[in-house]
Amino acid sequence: MKENYLKFWKSVGIVLLTTVIVGIMPRVGQAQGNTNLFAVVEFMKVEPGQEGNYLELEQKIWKPIHQERVNQGKLFGWILYQVMYTGTDDAYNYATVNVYANSANFENPYDGIDFAKVHPGKDMGEEFTKTINTRKLVKSQLISRVTYANPGGGENTAPHKYIVVNFMKSKPGGNLVQLETEMAKPTSEELIKSGTWAGWSLWSNVFPRGAGMESDFVTVDNYPDFSKLGSANYMQAFTKANPGKDWAEFANKAANARVMVRSELWKLVDAVFAGQ
User: Across-strand partners of 220?
Assistant: First the structure.
């Protein structure tokens, strides 16, 4: 049991929500005095009949541990999402996201966390066994944030109720990062001003990465509520945000820069963040 327990913490420490500049970690964002934001995203498969047990463990056992990590400055935030519109044949239906403002903190992310202090009287081995019996860890990814847009232009750590996660595969020579930064970002800022979106961000795969990956970039569209889903007039926002630039030319460049692999709707279940 002890060996399994240690393996569990090790796996949790190196895992991640998905996806941009291969080989480097961009310096962007404003969080805890550090210019980087990284995320470890873990994609979970919860089998039918285990959903209630899984959510209880995440919220009653693991959430307080993540809160302690935040309190100690080791973690910037933790989010639990349900992946909407999934079925029994889908690879995963939940995702957890651990957000870090300092790359040194995700090498040994649970170092110094006293489980007995967080959960007096509970047995860690037993809780670990319960956890692995409720879900399967399908895959993990370490990603870094490239750029973002939020209301007011600053850092906004509060997670939103719904996000659309767009998985993309970049094409050689397509300058995806430049395209997203120079044209897509201003368009996203316009959608935020109109109240259609509540935020936007572009992320890159750090590990794993390579030509064999299904996707290497992800954009995240934040929505204030369900009613805003599908209401964005992207062409209108692009025209307003990019005066003098042609929509058709942008669409052509986008097609040459990346393949849109898929889009998923994620619903917020729970979260803890620094300063909240």
Answer: 165, 201
List, in sequence order, every beta strand (DSSP E) within the chain: 38-46, 77-83, 94-100, 135-149, 162-170, 199-207, 217-223, 258-273
pLDDT at 34: 36
Is-contact 41 140, C-beta < 8 A? yes
Residues 72 and 6 in one domain: yes
Decide if 188 contacts 148 (C-beta within 8 A).
Answer: no
Are 98 and 20 members of one domain? yes
Burial class (CB in 10 A: 0-12, 13-18, 19+), 165: buried
Overall number of domains in the chain: 2
Strand, coil or helix: 178: helix
pTM comes to 0.85
Q: Do 69 and 199 fall within a single domain?
A: no
How confident is the model over 190-224, as pLDDT tens digits?
999 999 999 999 999 999 999 889 999 999 999 98
Bridge-partner residues for 140, per DSSP?
Answer: 42
Domain range holding 52? 2-143
CATH number at residue 135: 3.30.70.100
Per residue in 33-43, pLDDT tens? 334 689 999 99
Q: What are phi and psi of 205, to 5 degrees?
A: -70, 135
Chosen domain end from 143, 175, 193: 143
Q: In this predicted model, what pLDDT tens digit does every residue of 152-196 receive, in sequence order?
A: 766 766 788 999 999 999 999 999 999 999 999 999 999 999 999
Question: Does 276 fall in a domain?
Answer: no
- Percent of the chain that is helix, strand, coil (3-state, to 5): 35, 30, 35
- Indicate if 22 and 102 belong to the same structural domain: yes
Average pLDDT of the chain is 85
